[in-house]
Amino acid sequence: MTAIAPATAISSDDSDTTSASVARTGGEMIVDAMIASGVRHAFGIAGVHNLPLYDALYDRGKITTYVTRHEQGAAFMADGYARVSGTPGVALVTTGPGLTNTVTPIAGSWSDSVPVLVIGTAGEVPLLGKYKGYLHEYKDQHGVMDAAAGSRLVTRTEDLETATIDLLVGMQTGRARPAVLEVPIDTMAASATTRRHAAPSHPLVQVPNADAVRRTALMLRQATHPLIFAGGGVIASGAHVLLLRLAELLRAPVLTSISGKGAIPDSSPWAAGCTWRTSSGPADGYPDEWRLADAGIVVGSRLTGMSTRAWRLPLPARLAHLDIDASEIGKSYPVEEPLIGDARAGLGMLLAELDRLGGDGASVWKSEQIKAIRDADDRAGEERCADALSVVRQVREGLPDDGILACDQSIACYWSVRHFRVDAPRRFLYPAGSAALGFGLPVGIGAQVAAPDRQVVVLAGDGGFLFTATELATAVQYDLPVTIIVCNDNAYGMIKASQERRYGGRVIDTVLRNPDFVAFGRSFGAYAEKLHGPTEIGDAIKAARHRPGPSLYALDIVLEPPFH
Question: Does residue 85 have a pLDDT over 90?
Answer without folding.
Answer: yes
